[in-house]
Design goal:
mainly alpha
């Protein structure tokens, strides 16, 4: 392969990426334009919140408990070297609220609910259900996409809150009940050190942004996939990969914007 062919392939790949970004931007604007339909069909939106949120609750709760247990053990080992084991509650709370809660929740949501949304919409497209709705003058973006998008944006922050709460309770069980840290010190350090805006508020903002990103990617990938079983399978895999990379990249950007002044 000579330099000209290599440059041609690179240019073709770059143009394909730019075209994909353009299609995604247009799809996102169209999706925002159809959001009022989700609130007109709020019962359907609440049903989708249950579908994507409640069905992800078990893995979120189990993961939150596991992360809380590990954080407590590792944090105690590190803090005890400096005689600051009473700050274990603060360490766990800041780690979960600022970083691990929103990020891990978004990654788990993409793997559980995101792939489900992509597969569901892809199968609708493969079965020509979306085309049939258009023939009946029913816009699939109003009936199918908008309620699911709003549901995902609502569900991710709620799941992140559950993740962090269960993680803190699990850390309490390890730190106070097993290791023997004073319960009052555990909670008081946490209450005095966690800021409502810088820590809790920014964590909520992160989870909302991650909810928008992961749900949008899942819907866009499913809506634009090939109407074949192989196309649906590739779309679900692409949802996990693109959502995970997007969450990690957005996490870096948001952290740089939010916490550089601390």
């Amino acid at each position: 392969m000579n330099a000209v062919e290599l440059l041609a392939r690179f240019g073709a790949r770059a143009l394909a990426v730019l075209a994909g970004l353009g299609r995604g931007a247009v799809f996102f604007v169209e999706l925002l334009r159809h959001l009022p339909a989700a609130f007109r069909r709020f019962t359907l939106t609440l049903t989708q919140v249950y579908m994507v949120g409640n069905h992800s609750l078990s893995i979120i709760a189990a993961s939150g408990a596991t992360v809380g247990l590990v954080l407590a053990l590792q944090g105690y080992i590190t803090l005890s070297r400096f005689g600051a084991s009473s700050s274990l509650g603060l360490l766990v709370a800041l780690s979960l609220l600022r970083e691990l809660g929103p990020v891990l929740t978004a990654l788990l949501f993409a793997g559980r609910a995101g792939t489900s949304l992509t597969a569901e919409i892809g199968l609708m497209k493969a079965g020509e259900q979306l085309a049939a709705m258009e023939m009946m003058a029913v816009d699939p973006r109003d009936r199918i996409l908008a309620p699911r998008f709003v549901a995902g944006v609502i569900a991710v922050p709620l799941l992140a809150a559950v993740f962090s709460a269960i993680g803190i309770l699990a850390a309490y069980g390890v730190g106070v009940l097993m290791i023997g840290i004073d319960s009052g010190a555990f909670w008081s350090q946490m209450q005095s050190g966690v800021d409502w805006v810088q820590d809790l508020g920014n964590g909520i903002v992160k989870s909302c942004v991650f909810g928008v990103a992961t749900t949008f990617i899942a819907l866009h990938t499913g809506y634009g996939c090939e109407a074949t079983p192989e196309g649906v399978a590739r779309a679900t895999t692409r949802t996990v990969v693109v959502s995970s990379l997007s969450v990690l990249a957005l996490d870096f950007v948001l952290t740089a914007l939010m916490f550089t002044g601390d």
